[in-house]
Design a protein that fits this description.
Layout lengths: L11 E6 L6 H14 L4 E5 L5 H11 L11 H25 L3 E5 L2 H11 L4 H12 L6 E6 L2 H10 L13 H17 L4 E5 L4 H16 L11
Parallel strand pairs: 1-3, 1-4, 2-3, 4-5
């Protein structure tokens, strides 16, 4: 049976990526509002806490450095995130795409490559295999990478009171530098999909840059050339 989207627009899958304190969650909300203001049906979601199962997994990481609690191994992290992603894709992302919506997802497969691959040192090939299992081959049409130096991102996260109690957020600066370099390496490998945006600019400027970057990538979708409102 062929798909019959509820929206008059072609479905599209956009992911937002970046290190800790990069502002991607703020930008996801701003871009969602812009799309909705221009008449598009949008599903705004996130990983790993985009489903009930994912929220439980996130709680596990938040307890990761509690007194007397052993840290998860990198392999366990990978498998936990793969489980959350499989549930998320099956129950949230694919149904929204099949309904003809634009899906905006805060973190996706590139996060696992950057954090567990470049950050933790796991095999990128191994991570790629688990990503393909979890997503059943689904890949983003466009990825917006909000690039902020890790020193600035961590300072921004501290200023906003972001908790560092999980096993990833509490890692030393050198870990976050590896993640940052990993993201840039991924962008160099897939320049047609991953658009790097200067996330260190004021928030309104970053939103305008992201919106502009979406225009050619969205192609047949009926988007105006500039934000409105």
């Amino acid at each position: 049976m062929s798909e019959r989207p509820s929206s008059p627009h072609r479905r599209f899958f956009i992911t937002l990526e970046g290190g800790d304190g990069s502002g991607k969650s703020t930008q996801a909300r701003a871009l969602c509002r812009l799309l909705e203001d221009n008449g598009f049906a949008v599903c705004l979601t996130r990983e790993p806490a985009g489903t009930a199962l994912g929220a439980l997994i996130k709680q596990t990481f938040e307890r990761g450095t509690a007194a007397g609690t052993p840290a998860l191994s990198p392999q366990a992290e990978l498998l936990f995130f793969a489980a959350a992603r499989a549930d998320h894709v099956r129950t949230v992302v694919r149904p929204a795409l099949e309904a003809g919506k634009i899906v905006l997802c805060d973190r996706f497969t590139d996060s696992t490559l950057a954090y567990q691959g470049y950050g933790r040192g796991l095999s990128l090939d191994e991570i790629g295999r688990w990503n393909r299992v979890a997503t059943e081959g689904l890949t983003p049409d466009l990825t917006l990478l909000f690039d902020v130096p890790p020193e600035a991102g961590l300072a921004r996260a501290d200023a906003h009171g972001v908790e560092k109690g999980d096993s990833i957020g509490g890692e030393p600066l050198e870990f976050h530098r590896r993640v940052h370099e990993g993201y840039l390496a991924l962008a160099r490998q897939e320049p047609s999909r991953i658009v790097v945006i200067d996330g260190a600019r004021p928030s309104e400027e970053v939103t305008a840059l992201a919106w502009q970057a979406m225009q050619p990538a969205l192609g047949t979708l009926r988007l105006p050339s500039q934000p409105q409102g």
